[in-house]
Every structure is written in C-alpha cells, then in structure tokens.
Amino acid sequence: MRLSSLLWILLIGVSFFGSCSKGDTPVVNPAPTNLTVTATINADNSGNVNFVASATNAATYEYDFGNGIFQTVPSGTVMYKYPASGNYKVNVIAKSTAGQTISKSVDVSVTVAQSLIWSDEFDAPGAPNPAKWNYDLGAGGWGNAELQYYTNRTDNAIVSNGTLKIIAKKENYSGSAYTSARLLTKDKFSFKYGKVEVRAKLPVGVGTWPAAWMLGANINTVNWPNCGEIDIMEHKGSDVNKIYGTLHYPGNFGGNAVGGTKVITGATTEFHVYTCEWTAVSIKFYIDDVLFYSFANNNTLPFNQNFFVLLNLAMGGNFGGPVDAGFTTTTYEVDYVRVYQ
Predict the structure, then answer these.
(1) Helix, strand or coil for residue 241?
(2) Cβ atoms < 10 Å from Cβ of 196
(3) Nearest to residue 130, comparing CAs of 184, 170, 175, 93?
(4) Rg of the chain's alpha carbons, rounded to an integer?
(5) Which residues belong to the active site?
(6) Distance between CA atoms of residues 204 and 14, nearest Å
(7) Triad 162, 168, 171: Cα angle to 5°
(8) So where are the chain's domains?
(9) Which residues contact residue 86 at a Cβ distance below 8 angstroms, ignoring those fewer than 6 apart?
C-alpha cells in the first residue's frame, strides 16, 4: 500500500508539471497583428489627407508619406498636408513595445490647388516697378566673362504694351561694347517652394543669352554656389530653340551643373511659358506644361530655403559664346512672372 501511494503521488506531480508546458506560457510582448490603414483625401484640393492606422498590440506607428517625409504617431491617427499634387505610396509600420513590426502600404492621389502669391503682369508703362524689382549694375557678368554692361536705364529695360522689354544694344558704355539689363527681386520678394511661371519671347542673335532664374536669398552670407541656383530657362542665340533648365550647387556648378534641355519651335518668334515646380523632394522644369527635366531634392542641398527671381539678357560670355559681328540690338520680351504656393 505504501508503494502504491508513492507512485500515485508521483503520477499526480508529473501530470501537474506537464500541464504547465512552455507552449502555454503567456507571451509578455506579443508582435503586432491585423494592421489596417485608411486614407481620406480632403475634397477641397488643400493637399490634406487624414490617415488612420490600427493594429493589435501596436505601441507606435511610423509613417512614410511617400515623398521623403516621415513621422512617428503613437495613436496611429494623423493628418498630413502634401505640398504638391501627385501620386504617393504611403507605408505604415506598426511597432510593439518590444520593437516587433508589421507594415502595410496604401496609394493616395492628391490634387493641390495653389494660390498666386506674387506676380508682375507688366501692365504699367515706363520703368519696371521699383516696388518689385532691383537692378544689378556693372560689367563682366560676375565671373561669366560676359560682354555687356548692365544698366538701370529705360534704354535697356522698359515696360510697354503689356510686356517687359529687356533690350541689349551694341554701344560703347563704361568700357563695355554692349549694354543690357538684369532685374532681380532680391530684398523685395523671396519664397520657399512653389511654382514659378515666366511667359516670354526670346531674343534673336548669335551671342545672346537670356535667362529666367533664381538664387538663394543667403547669397551675401554663403556666396555662390553654396546659396544654390535654379535656372528656369536659358537659351543660346547660337543654338536657336534649345531651352536649358539647370541647377547649380556645391559639387555641381558651372560646366558641371545638372539639368536637362528641350528643343521647341518658335522660341524667338512666339511666347512660351517656362515653369519650375519646386518642393522639398523635387524640382521640375516644364515648357508649355510639358515636363522635360526632374531633379530629386533633399535636405542636404541648398534648395530648401528662400530664393529670389532674376531676369536678364547677357551678351557672349562662357555660355553665350561669340557675338555675331553684325549684331546691333535685340529684345527679350516678358509677358508675366507669376509665383504660386
């Protein structure tokens, strides 16, 4: 009887301990499961999108909004405003307190309506509006070996019949063989991100070099090319109808700048709209709404600060090349400059 009792006790003990197997031990930090993500796009074309992410056992949610912007959201609910229209793949990572993750992606198509924040329609005859434009004055083109002397005379820049006319002339002036004008909004208007439109008819003549472009507003502090340069439109009179969109920044400037070109028709006989769309993640160049070059922007580049606008007509120089010996005068005609955000 004593041996039977002992065996019975042992059997009860084995049964008890066997019932507490490792497989039945509660998990202290379970991984997240059942992740769902919804995106509701506001119908007002503001760029606002409301995201709701939910998962079992999730402590935080990490959002990648598909445009280089990231945000950690403990609740999973967030409203994000896209700065530009586009199609974006949004990825959400749900993370447990122990760091275990699960992820899911959704696609959103966003339309952003922009508002006009600054423009010059060139409707007031006479000198360009002094409330909007300053002048760069002098010769040499600031290192470009240009041949003109930039003045602030109405002989070289005047508004008439609804357009700005920047006029280059062959004339001896303060030691230079040509005169022209370079207008800029520096110290009057600058902006960060947006869309710039310049409607213009370009000048005729071998050696002409018209441009619509932008420089970083901190140029006086950091100098060029550290301030960054965005060339919305450049054209060589020696290569008619070929339009350049170019970016200059440290490591990529001058002859090593990056950009694209597009050949159009009627650059010197018709007005065309030259456009730059600039965001934190891209800089895109268009002619008459047709994209011809796209550049990936990021926070290591100087294109994430205020820039101002310039319009000028150079003669010769490193880009313009030799001027036709028979050149006398030509006009770069601008219908408007508009900036949207």
Answers:
(1) coil
(2) 22
(3) 184
(4) 31
(5) 229, 234
(6) 100
(7) 140
(8) 33-110, 116-340
(9) 67, 109, 110
User: Using one digit for the tens of pLDDT, what is the confidence trace for 27-66?
Assistant: 578 999 999 999 999 999 989 999 999 999 999 999 999 9
Nearest 5°: phi and psi at 215? -130, 150
How many CB atoms neighbour CB 302 within 10 A? 20
Cβ 327 vs Cβ 205: under 8 Å: yes
| pLDDT at site 83 | 82
Cα 222 from Cα 51, distance rounded (Å): 40
Domain 33-110: which topology?
Answer: Immunoglobulin-like (2.60.40)
Question: Token digits for 166?
Answer: 């920047």
Domains 33-110 and 116-340 agree in fold: no
8 A C-beta contact, residue 245 and residue 264 = no
Longest alpha-carbon distance in the chain: 131
List the CATH code of the domain at 116-340.
Answer: 2.60.120.200
Do β-strands 176-180 and 148-150 pair in parallel, antiparallel, or remain unpaired? parallel
- Give the pLDDT confidence of 229-242 residue by residue, as tens digits: 999 999 999 999 99
CA–CA separation, 340 and 63 (whole Å): 28
Residue type, 103: S
- Picking from 264, 287, 261, 263, the residue whose alpha carbon sits closest to that of residue 276 is 287
Residue found under tokens 């083109």: 141
Is 324 within 8 Å of 291 (Cβ atoms)?
no
Helices (H), 82-230: 219-222
Tokens read off for 159 = 């508004």
For residue 85, what are its two tokens?
């229209």
Regarding pTM above 0.85, the answer is: no
Residue 171 backbone dihedrals phi, psi, to 5 degrees = -165, 150
